[in-house]
Amino acid sequence: MKLGRVEIGAEEFVVTVEGDLATPVATGDPAALVDMAAGRRNPAPIGAPVPLSSVRVLAPVSRPPSIRDFMAFEAHARDASLDGKVDPGWYEHPVFYFTNPHAVRGPEEEIVVPAGTRCLDYELEVAAVIGAEASDLAADDPATLDVICGFTILNDWTARDIQVDEMRKNLGPVKGKDFATSIGPFLVTPDEFDDFRSGRPKARMAARVNGERWSLGELSDIHFSWAEILAYASRNTRLVPGDVLGSGTVGTGCILELRQQGMRETRKWLKAGDLVELEVDGIGTLRNRIAARPG
User: Fold this and answer.
1) Is CATH 3.20.20.140 correct for 2-58?
2) Which of helix, strand or coil describes residue 197?
3) Which of 65, 149, 171, 285 could bridge across to 38 with cysteines, CB 3.0–4.6 Å?
């Protein structure tokens, strides 16, 4: 099942999506969308189907309780490093940082270039949305995966020059990530993905800048399984419905990696006017245009 949140006229609705049609099934509360994806509410129509082209698509979750963004792809850990090597400690368990739930952006929303950066980057990721409260999950328990109610696309926008300066201070990314995280366009339930029960569902991932494909990857190449990600995220704490867990960037899925691979002349940092499109099979395309900072 594919679910989304849309604006029809002045009202927001949760919708089921089939092809090019959206059918309203609830008012636009993100919690209702999560409940339906988790199977706790029946998505019965409350209105007639409408063309997606006639509505504004919103982020499926807005202001989630938390966003944990992992770095679970070995290729990204290697190719984004200065020396092309992965620290042995990276393999011990999946690592993440918390980012700003109040900075979530939806499809087609503009991303304003942050003050003080000349190195704006996209990051091609998939995110799992939590559908049930859970704590201290076990990576080897098949039921652990049942905590995920759906997957969506996540763009972890990064001001690379600010990030580099911050990480020299040993506190991880702060303002280099604080300004925007795009999520959307839809939330797709896990049963729609091949090999979900293996913990490594399959889906082709791609990124385009101004219509030209820059990144291409595969979700199942993730090093840590989603069960391992869930287990670490829930250790000594509680996950709650609506929490977002990002996969981290797929291999080749950001400009930094491409530039590290010798493409500095053709893969420039993002600038005002650029259109970034992230596409994941089975979910859709998440589009955002870069805007200049006012003034």
Assistant:
1) no
2) helix
3) 149
